[in-house]
Amino acid sequence: MSTDAIVMLREGHKEIRRLIHSYRAERDAQVIEPFLRALTVYTYIEREGMYPRVGVLVPETEPDILGFAEEHHIADVLAAELYEMRRDAVAFDAKARLLMDIVERHMDAEDQRWFPRVRAAVGRKELQEIGAWMATLAECAPQHPRRPSSQMVWDTVAA
Ligand SMILES: [Fe+2]
């Protein structure tokens, strides 16, 4: 298995997209469990492994990274609410669909805009090291969403 960081994250996106399509086609609440697990693991390895390293290596993409991290934060809030919600709750489907729309938009932006920029700026060896670190992180990643703190870490740091 490749440990190239971008290949790994694209594979994560593919799995999440497959689960989104499956939910949209069948409205089957059973799909929510594997969807939230895949989303939680992907979010963890990208946020802990990819964003900090690429922020240092390609500082000009930092505004993108801050935007992506905020999108993950909003997705975390919705994912945690969905995880705690009864599957037959009135708002369950609306919340699931909104979360999936946000996640899909986020993945589109990374796939189409950000990954190509990172690929062009970061060497193959470096991307494989990040990938290997993300594979390690995946082994200890949380398996379901948790309510995030209300602020991102950098919100508390004065500019
Ligand atoms: Fe992401």
From TrEMBL:
<dbReference type="InterPro" id="IPR012312">
    <property type="entry name" value="Hemerythrin-like"/>
</dbReference>
<feature type="domain" description="Hemerythrin-like">
    <location>
        <begin position="5"/>
        <end position="117"/>
    </location>
</feature>
<protein>
    <submittedName>
        <fullName>Hemerythrin domain-containing protein</fullName>
    </submittedName>
</protein>
<dbReference type="Pfam" id="PF01814">
    <property type="entry name" value="Hemerythrin"/>
</dbReference>
